[in-house]
Every structure is written in structure tokens, then in C-alpha cells.
Amino acid sequence: MNSARLLPPLTRATQVAALGLEKRVYSSLALFFRSACKESYHLVSVESADISIIDMDGYKASHVLEQHKIDYPTRPVILTSINIISSSKGLFIQKPIKVSSLTNALQRAEQQVLSTKSAVSNSLLTDSRKNRSVANTKVKSEVRSKENSEPRKENKIHQPVRVAEVESSSKVVPDEPPVLENNIKIKRPRPVIAKVNARVKEPQLWSARSLDSLVSVSNSGFHLMSDELKNDAITARLLRQLQYNPQGMLQGYFKKAYDTALASRCNVRLEGPWRPITILINKHTVLVESNFRHVFALSAMNFRPEEVSITILPKDESDSVYDGEITQSIEQFVWKLCLRTSRGKVPIGTDLNVPILLKQWPNFTRTTVTPHALRIAALWAQRPTSLIKTAKILNISLSYVFVFYSSALPLNLLSHMNGEKVHKTTSLEPKQHTYRKLFNSLIEKLKSKTIST
Amino acid sequence: MANLKIIFTGPVGAGKTTAISTISDGNVILTDANASDVVKDKKSKTTVAMDYGTVRLEGGECIHLYGTPGQERFDFMWDILTKGGIGLVLLLDNTRNSPFQDMKFFLGQFKNFIERTQVIIGVTQMDRKAAPCIENYHKHLNKLGLNVPVFEVDARNKQDVSMLVKGLLYSLDPCIAE
After folding, report:
1. Which residues of B touch A439 (CB under 8 A)?
2. Distance, CA of A297 to CA of A278 (rounded, Å)
3. Residues 178 to 197 of A: which have CB under 8 A from any B CB?
4. What is the ipTM of this complex?
5. pLDDT tens digits, residue range A178-208?
């Protein structure tokens, strides 16, 4: 039964406000809504929202919540925290936030919005219509409870659930019991053919604006990372905020899956709260069920090892079964995944003052080019330069340097240099070319040529 | 008023003429002749003197793009063409029997010019023949002690050719504005 016919659907995307979230989380949420939820939800300011999400671990969070209750007494609130919070205060999601719990909470909040709206309109109706409405509500709740026990059908509002559903529905009993390696289930052969609907348009140039939207969403009340990055002094507190740990993220799990594929010389499937990813080790390519963007949208989230499984596909399975599927080279995939995971941060443990050498240029015509990436590559290829100094020499935000570094490092394109000799060369800044002005004009001209194409 | 030169080189059929036409303003001067030797199996016409195109800049300056003839018997032209050049774009055809030998040959021929300036490599026809991959080119370059940009390109694609030229310019001066 189609639930959309019985439940009055919201005619527009549900408006969601996020209060007190760290900027990176905020950006991830925006991406998640845009990609995985197909814009069923929009992040908006607190004034115009239907639902509010409040991070209770944020500064003065209790005060924000109290004020919110006064300003918007009927609005559903979803609270997030590391610690468990009483459900009387609102819907609650414990961190680390799982896709399924977030979508469930959003759906419950949506239901609250709908029931509030229907209560308001009902109060204007006659008694007889009120009675009918009560009867309808009963039917709705019955249908809803039935829906909960059945797989959900295609519905715009409920689209996010599919992320979790695909995962659970595609699970196949393995031929052998799963082996636990580093807390990740390694399953043995399972003959499944992956399908890809993705169309990948290359090359993709990232404008400064689009990267800024990832690294520095400037909503009031959120951490203004890019502003602080303009300052010379990187405090220990800021450094912690500028780092991320890829281990628990898709990047970390992909690395493990790739290592498994290399060791077994078999194709490997990586499954989790994202669409299944298959590594075709002999073809050196990656294919994704559904769109690559769906996978990338989840790149900034943390997942528990028990949510993830790595399946070694049968050795006798020919690569030809994947012919015609749209794939990406492993380098291309890793580059994109890492830059989306980084979002202007660096992996934990990065020394910002160690000179970096570019051992090999990325294939910039066939991958995403972040702002200033060519300049950073050219500088590092010629003279090892630290992350901090690179930003100074090129007069750019550290975010751009960080995102390039974080993408190039896993592909083994970089070397960390040490020693006096290196320090001597890095102390020299690149000499200004005689024709710098002319080069600037030519760059401008080339830019206009490619834009007009 | 400065007028700069960028040199496009590479073996026959690598896409030099096409690349120059792709980013030039106005008409490109071609010195094509009917191919009479082994080249005719690959294409009907080939460059015998040079290709020439221009990119006109706002201040009235002009960037000259010169394409060398690909056949080795015209290599006496190469020295003449490189005079006053700011950098080299080396295009390699991935479908040829030994693209690494081509690479080594051209890098050797233009060694003095590259030492004074910079070089960038564009590999064409990778859609027709994926191997060797870009990684393999880098491995061979390492053996030659070079760390230069290598991009997969379609010489007909403006974005690709522009990216090559941009890579060359940033290699010459990373501090130029983006």
C-alpha cells in the first residue's frame, strides 16, 4: 500500500535547522540531505524550519534548547549528544550518528509536524468532520504500524531509509562464517554482480566557492574555521579541530578492503551504510551500486566496524561480468573520496611544519581539481615546503593546502622530508618569473576559454 | 611588448596540430602535406614545417604556440623553433608501439631547452588504449630523474589542453594567481 496516499505528504522539502553543530558536521549534514536524501530535507535558518536539530554537546546547548522551547514550543526537536539524554526533552540520537537513526528521527519528527498541522486545521472544522478526522487518524496510525513491519515503498519523503534498506536487503548468507579481522567482518565468496547507474563526468573543477561551502559554512553560531585558518598561530585546540581520523570513516574501510583485495588477488566488496562498493583488483577500478555521489556523501561520517563488511568475491568470477559497467580507477576514486573526507582538514598526527615533496603529479585532467591544487603541486614538486609555509607562500587559506595534502597522501604521491639540507632549500621562496604578469593574463584567458566551452 | 612562445612537440599523430587548434584564437597556420612514408598508415596529412597558433591577451600581448613536425627527419627545425620559448608541451600517443621510447627520445632531444624552462607531458589516445597507464610514465620518468606533470589528454578538448598549459605555467612559477 502506498503510504503517500494516506499520509498527507509535505508538498515541499522538509525544512531543518541545525543548531550548535560543528561546521564540518553541519556541512556533512547538508551534503547528506542533498545527495542521499535527494533534497527531501533542506537546511535552513532556525526561523523558517519545520524541525530543529540541536547538538547538546555544544557551547551553552542547554540554554539554546530552553530558548528554542520558548520561541518554537510546538516544533519537533532532535537532540544529539555523546551522552544519553532523556527522551522527554525531544527525539534523541546518540553520537556517533548513524544514518539509520538520523533518518528514523527525521521521519518521526516529520510525523509530529504533520500531526501538529492536522491538529491546527482540524480545530477549524465542524464536529462531524472532526470525528471523521479521528477515524482517519486511526487508519493512518494502523497503516503506519503496518508500514513499520513491511519494507517501505518508493516515496520521496522516505527516500533516506533506502540507504539502510539496500544494505540489509542485499545481505546474503555467506558460504563460510565471517572472519573477524581488525573488527571487520571478512566474508568469503558470494557471487553477486554489482550494477552501476552512475554517470561520471570528468574532469570536475571545484570552484573556491564549492570548497568553501564544505570547509567554511558561515552560519552564525558555528565554528568559523576558515577565519581562524587565516591566522598564523595554530593553537593546540585549533590543531585538534583541524584533524580527522580516517580509520572509522569510509576512507579507512576502503583502505582495508583494498589491502584485502591486494592480499587475496580477488575482487572485493565493501558494504556498510553506503551502497556496495566493489574493487576490481585486476582491472584496478572501483564500481559502485547506484551513484558514486551517494557514496561520497557519506565520506565524512564515522561508522562502527560492526556496521561494515568486506566480502572476498569468488576467484573464478571473471571480470567480464562487469564489462559495460561504469567504473572509476582506484586512484580517481580514492582522490575524490579523500578530498571529501578531508573537507579542509588533515589526518590526525600530521605535522604542519614538516616539508612535503610531491613525488608524482596527480592526473589533473581526469580527477577533481580543488582550488590552487596545481599551484601547490608545482611548488611541492620543485621544493619541499611545509603545509603552513605553502599557505603563506601562495597566499591562500590553509584549507586548500590541507585538502590537497589529505587527498594526495593516501595515493602515495607525497614524501615527508627531514634534515638540514631540505630546510635550507625550503627557506628559499620561489623566484618570481620575469613574465609573471603575462602568465597571469594567460591563465585568465584560458579560464574564460574553458568556461565558454 | 613581450611575445612568448610555447612549443608543442611529440611523435607523429600525437595530436600537436589538434591541441594547438583547440586553444588558439582565430586561424591556425598549418604546413601539412600529404604523407608519403609510413605516416600515411596513421593519417593522410602530416606537418612538415610547423603549426602555428596564437592566444591573444587583453593587454595586446600574444602567446605564440608552435608545433614541431613529428617526423624525426625534420628535427633540424626543433632547435630553431625553441628559441625564445618559455616551455615545452610533449604530447605522446599511447597507441604507439613504444611510447616510453618516444618519451625518452623527445626529452633527450629537448634536454637543453627543458633545463632552461619546464616540460609537461600529455598522453593522448588513452581512450583507445589504456595501457600503459599514467603511473607507468611516471615510473619511467623517475628512472630519468625527472618529476614532471603527466596528464591524460584529449587534444580536441579545450579543458584538457588548457590544463596542460596551466600546468606548464604553474611549473614555471607556482606563485602566479589562479
Report:
1. 169, 172-173, 176
2. 17
3. none
4. 0.90
5. 344 455 656 554 433 333 333 333 344 444 4
Residue, of A189 and A218, whose pLDDT is higher: A189
Å between A246 CA and nearest CA of chain B? 25
Contact A109, A146 (CB under 8 A): no
Rounded CA gap, A14 and A162, in Å? 18
CA atoms within 13 A on the CB side of A304: 8
Answer yes or no: are the C-beta atoms of A14 and A107 closer than 8 Å.
Answer: no
Phi-psi region of B13 (alpha: psi -120 to 50; beta: other; left: phi over 0): left
- The answer to whether residue B149 neighbours chain A at the CB level (below 8 Å) is yes
Whether B58 and chain A come into contact, CB under 8 Å, resolves to: yes
CB contact under 8 A, A432 and B173: yes
Dihedral, A356, A360, A364, A366 alpha carbons, nearest 10: -130
CB contact, 8 Å: A411 with chain B? no
Please classify residue B105 by burial: count the beta carbons closer than 10 Å to its beta carbon, then call 0-12 exposed, 13-18 middle and 19+ buried. Answer: middle
Please say whether the beta carbons of A364 and B150 come within 8 A: no
pLDDT digits (tens, 9 = 90+) for A93-140: 887 777 778 888 888 888 888 777 666 545 444 444 444 444 444 434
CA distances for B110 relative to A38, A355, B81, angstroms: 53, 31, 11
Exposure string (b/e) for A247-257, b if CB count within 10 Å is 16 or more? ebbbbbbbebb
Fill in the amino acid letter for B157. N
Does A442 contact B at CB distance below 8 Å? Answer: yes
Omega of the bond prior to B132 within 30 degrees of 0, cis?
yes
